[in-house]
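TICKET: design request
STATUS: open
ATTACHED STRUCTURE:
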């Protein structure tokens, strides 16, 4: 069940895709400041997750241990990657199409393989949404590496937090660009070089 009204979703997406225009049109400075703070929160990705899910064509779900979104055809698993300027003026990271499965289990992997949720990966810089791409969880290179890393963690007795980057899904033939910022080239320095080249190629393909 979606916990946000249509008007709230519209405002969140407007902010994420054109923060400067939102700021000029917003008559409530306090609301803008609060939204900016939450979108840039380093400990919670809820707004980034909600926008990613909505713009990918799904209804956001609030179930804690379930999928992040669902439409009539399938469920989705959202992985927003966030980059920002630290207090000392340095970038905290460069976008690499990274995502993490926290507290992952073999049971959950089995469920994912059976249900095949759509992975929706998004990239953010200082509260600005740059892109969203999607691909099926069951893409072999991706699901295999998730399982391998999970088994490695289990064998070593470590917490099962499983990370991945674009290398895990870059060869998938079923990748789709669900959203991209028109001036994404202005943010080139916020990407790793391979990730930017990969993303630019996919964007050019969908634009041709």
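STATUS: resolved
RESOLUTION: sequence designed for all positions
ATTACHED SEQUENCE:
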């Amino acid at each position: 069940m979606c916990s946000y009204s249509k008007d709230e979703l519209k405002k969140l997406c407007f902010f994420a895709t054109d923060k400067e225009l939102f700021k000029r049109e917003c008559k409530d400075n306090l609301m803008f400041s609060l939204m900016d703070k939450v979108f840039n929160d380093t400990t919670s990705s809820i707004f980034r997750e909600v926008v990613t899910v909505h713009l990918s064509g799904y209804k956001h779900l609030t179930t804690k241990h379930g999928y992040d979104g669902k439409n009539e055809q399938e469920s989705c698993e959202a992985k927003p990657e966030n980059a920002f300027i630290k207090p000392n003026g340095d970038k905290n990271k460069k976008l690499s199409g990274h995502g993490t499965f926290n507290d992952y289990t073999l049971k959950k992997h089995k469920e994912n393989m059976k249900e095949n949720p759509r992975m929706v990966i998004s990239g953010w810089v200082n509260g600005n949404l740059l892109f969203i791409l999607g691909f099926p969880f069951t893409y072999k290179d991706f699901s295999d590496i998730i399982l391998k890393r999970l088994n490695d963690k289990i064998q070593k007795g470590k917490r099962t937090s499983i990370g991945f980057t674009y290398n895990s899904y870059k060869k998938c033939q079923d990748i789709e660009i669900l959203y991209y910022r028109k001036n994404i080239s202005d943010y080139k320095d916020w990407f790793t070089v391979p990730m930017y080249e990969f993303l630019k190629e996919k964007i050019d393909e969908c634009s041709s």
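CLOSING REMARK: Helices lie at 6-17, 19-25, 29-39, 46-55, 106-115, 140-155, 193-207. The chain has one domain: 6-207.
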